[in-house]
Amino acid sequence: MADDWAGGVSAFDLANDADRDTLEEGRHLIRRYMDAKEGLKKLGILRSGRALQGDYAKWLVARFLGLRLSESTVEKGLDATDSEGRTYQIKSRIVSDLSARTLFDLSDPRFRFDYLIAVFFDPELEVPGILRVPHEVVIELGSQTRSTFRLYWRGESSLDSRMERLFWKDGGAD
Predict the structure, then answer these.
(1) In CA terms, which of 12, 34, 96, 123 is 20 to 30 Å from 104?
(2) Full-prediction pTM beyond 0.85?
(3) How confident is the model at residue 85 (pLDDT cuts 50, 70, 90)?
(4) Sorting pLDDT into bands at 50, 70 and 90, what band is 2?
């Protein structure tokens, strides 16, 4: 079978008659998706080639706060730095609304950063909220699992007075 792939057998050749229309539409959408990814890379929005959500959050936060993104897209615990040398880890989640429960995974809390920026996206990647959370608050309120460190978000009841709302849908920027 591997030789067939190398010989030019396409997915279209493998599809049955009932699936050909679906496959044709799927191929069209995949081409559009790949073109969009390439365009986002050229704009500097998509940097890692991984999920758009994470790269888009980093790009938005860097523009919003005037941060310099790290050169490496895989540097542990450090996504950006401000003009005063403070370091930021930027995480994002897609939520139905700001009262939805979610969590922010941090691979290892020993990777020192000054602030966690928590970006909340809606399903269309619009931003209902952005929080700035000092590292010590992340450590105090988070918990270690077997493989990762997590800061749980249980809706607005999770807000701690030390968390700064940089942007919030009900009132905009603080």
Answers:
(1) 34
(2) no
(3) very high
(4) very low
Q: Which residue has the tokens 């888009």?
A: 56
Strand ranges inside 51-135, DSSP E: 68-69, 80-81, 87-94, 101-106, 115-121, 129-134
Mean pLDDT in residue range 110-121: 91
Output the CA–CA distances (angstroms, integers) from residue 84 to 18, 87, 93, 126, in the order listed.
60, 9, 27, 29
3-state secondary structure of 8: coil
Give me the residue spans of the domains in the chain.
2-43, 52-168
Taking the domain 52-168, which CATH number applies?
A: 3.40.210.10
Confidence of residue 67 (pLDDT cuts 50, 70, 90): very high
Q: How far apart are CA 110 and CA 76, in angstroms?
A: 10
Burial-class residue 37 by CB neighbours within 10 Å (0-12, 13-18, 19+): middle
Q: How far apart are CA 109 and CA 41, in angstroms?
A: 30
